């Protein structure tokens, strides 16, 4: 059975995550998901903190180090309990970020072009970090390719003739991909309401910029090839 110090360490991890801004929460989700229980766990966590501009987050590093020590000392049944509990914390964190910090705010505007560029970049940063561990680069590039094809087609015909019907199919494409691979679902959750808020060329251009930024951040966070 899990001992009290281990339970408290897990509770503290959750509390620290809950109190961080979205970008930091997403980055910690990525770090913990990708490095969990690996050899030289603490060393790798500290290195990634430096890489991703979180080098001053000593409180989180200390708690994670303690949790790792408890994991190493535990027997196999307790290891499984710790692993399941951390997976649950990370899963809840990911869902909360997607729904509360991005989707809900997208749904507050009527058109995508009304969203400030700075906010879009922040959301792309968050989404790139969340997707980097589970979603392969080829999959996200495939969607970007479909978006860019629409952009090229519209430019050839003339942006003034842009029609929303030209982008609605992108929702179907993502839904199909998400049905085959659940790692695509966070991308679908964000892109779907964004497409609903595309009425004109300026709105679509916002989507193009957002998708490009997500791909860039996915790469920055070491997204799987």
Automatic annotation (TrEMBL):
Assigned keywords, A-Z: Antiviral defense, RNA-binding
Annotated GO biological process: defense response to virus
Similarity annotation: Belongs to the CRISPR-associated Csm2 family.
MF term (GO), any: RNA binding
Keyword RNA-binding attributed: yes
Native species: Calditerricola satsumensis
The protein's role, per its UniProt record: This subunit may be involved in monitoring complementarity of crRNA and target RNA.
Protein name from the UniProt record: CRISPR system Cms protein Csm2
């Amino acid at each position: 059975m899990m001992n009290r110090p281990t339970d408290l360490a897990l509770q503290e991890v959750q509390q620290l995550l809950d109190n961080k801004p979205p970008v930091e929460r997403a980055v910690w989700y990525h770090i913990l998901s990708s490095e969990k229980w690996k050899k030289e766990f603490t060393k790798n966590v500290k290195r990634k903190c430096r890489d991703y501009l979180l080098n001053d987050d000593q409180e989180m590093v200390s708690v994670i180090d303690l949790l790792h020590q408890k994991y190493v000392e535990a027997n196999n049944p307790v290891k499984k309990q710790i692993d399941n509990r951390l997976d649950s914390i990370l899963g809840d964190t990911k869902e909360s970020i997607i729904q509360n910090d991005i989707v809900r705010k997208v749904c507050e505007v009527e058109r995508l072009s009304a969203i400030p560029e700075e906010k879009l970049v922040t959301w792309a940063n968050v989404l790139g970090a969340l997707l980097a561990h589970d979603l392969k680069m080829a999959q996200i590039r495939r969607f970007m390719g479909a978006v860019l094809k629409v952009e090229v087609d519209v430019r050839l015909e003339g942006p003034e003739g842009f029609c929303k019907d030209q982008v609605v199919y992108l929702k179907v494409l993502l839904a199909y991909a998400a049905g085959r691979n659940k790692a695509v679902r966070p991308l679908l959750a964000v892109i779907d309401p964004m497409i609903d808020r595309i009425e004109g060329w300026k709105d679509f251009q916002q989507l193009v910029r957002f998708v490009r930024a997500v791909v860039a951040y996915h790469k920055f966070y070491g997204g799987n090839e």
